[in-house]
Amino acid sequence: MLDQEWIKLILQAKHLGLTIEEIREFLYKEQESKTKKTMNLSVGNTQKSRV
Length: 51
Fold this sequence. Notes:
There is one protein chain. By secondary structure, the chain is mainly α. The chain has one domain (4-39). The protein is 84% helix and 0% strand. The N and C termini lie far apart (48 Å).
């Protein structure tokens, strides 16, 4: 089952004129950004614990 809030957000984006591809690209970039931040935090914590 799909999350109703996600459905609402997607419909709002489409109403604003965004294409499905633009929505996918945005979500992909956001996920990629969060992954990089998490990796940077993990590396930073590892380096600090070695000092």
